[in-house]
Amino acid sequence: MATTTFRFPSIDETTNHPAYPSAVWNLKPDRNGLFPAAKDRGGPVNIAWEIHGTGPTKLLLIMGLAGVTASWQRQTRYFGHDRGDQYSVLIMDNRGMGASDKPLARYSTSAMARDIIEVLDHVGWTGKRQVHAAGISLGGMIAQELACLIPERLASLSLLCTSGEVKNTDTVAEWIGQCVGFVVPKSAEQGIVDTARKLFPVEWLEAPDADDPPSPETTSGCGPAPGDGKYRMFDSNFQRFQAQELTKKRQPGHFTRQGFLCQLVAAWWHRKTPEQLAAMADAVGRERMLVMHGTGDVMIKFSNGERLMDAIKPGTAMVIEGMGHVPVMERYKWCNEVLHERFQAWAQIQDED
């Protein structure tokens, strides 16, 4: 149960905390660049990308609404640094966020998937059954479009806390109220608190910082943290999340209201019918697919995950009691191990093709 004594720290408290300079880990990519995608689709739209690791197993991670490459840092470290001789991990800032361009336009999940395909082509990841794709939330919607467009190139598809069509409300009035909640002006401090409550169970937010920061001495390709070079712990899981959000929003041009709203439109208007999802699953291969959803998810309610599982009938369906919207943060150690085990199993299917 949530405690009655927890107090969300202020922005000043967190920015003055000794751990604040090390909130975003200095994980150095093996390759990176800015690719001009969508030249024939109203662009170019420059997409910032990084590859961590040099291993033969190619992993594509697709982030959700308002996420940036650093949002994957727990997975980037696990797969691309601690296991960099086994994995090559491709991460990127979706259009509208981070170091990528943020054009004012009608964004769609299919257009964002085509951005990713062009980056895959650019880095040479073009082989049959070569790429293990994993997407969370909006990233899972983009991953669905990716799988519809290039199913033969996917070695596996993992859809985390996402939906073929988000249905969180029973009435149009409720839907409008939820949308307004995303865009109504509020203080930076309250905005981060409200976002955290949508993404994570309150018990996890109030708990002591459970992260496992890297060390330049033990983590391959990890540089020192700013300042004295040390990676430190925060007082709570919420404070670490708050620090990462502040770091993102204070980096010039990385987070804009325009980019956020354009991505939000793409998420709200994503539509995949059960028939389309079934055809996608046939093309990729259900035995290569994972769908994971938590019963405690309030951002994309669990009923959405149930419908997705019913339509796809994936080889691996995981319903996690009490889990919130972001297992790659909330339960990152477990989530990393689950994905690692699945990638090993799916590689065997690939070898048998």
Structural commentary:
Pfam families: Abhydrolase_1. Keywords: Hydrolase. Residues 59-170 form the AB hydrolase-1 domain. The protein has 353 residues and is α/β, with parallel strands linked by helices. It has a single domain, classed as 3-Layer(aba) Sandwich (Rossmann fold), CATH 3.40.50. The protein is 41% helix and 14% strand. It is built from 13 helices and 8 strands. It has helices spanning 11-15, 73-81, 109-123, 138-149, 172-183, 188-199, 202-206, 237-250, 257-268, 274-284, 302-312, 327-330, 332-352, and strands at residues 31-37, 45-52, 57-62, 87-92, 131-136, 154-160, 289-294, 316-320. An 8-stranded mixed β-sheet has the order 1-2-4-3-5-6-7-8, sandwiched between helices. A hairpin with a 7-residue loop joins strand 1 and strand 2 (45-52). Helix 3 crosses helix 4 (138-149). The termini are far apart.
Span between termini: 49 Å
Q: Provide the number of structural domains.
A: 1
Query: What is the second-level CATH architecture?
Result: 3-Layer(aba) Sandwich
CATH homologous group name: Alpha/Beta hydrolase fold, catalytic domain
Structural class: alpha/beta
What sort of overall outline do the alpha carbons produce when their principal axes are compared? globular
Lateral arrangement of strands in the main beta sheet: 1-2-4-3-5-6-7-8
CATH class: Alpha Beta
GO molecular function, one term: hydrolase activity
Protein name: Putative aminoacrylate hydrolase-like protein
Region (Disordered): 207-226
Domain AB hydrolase-1: 59-170
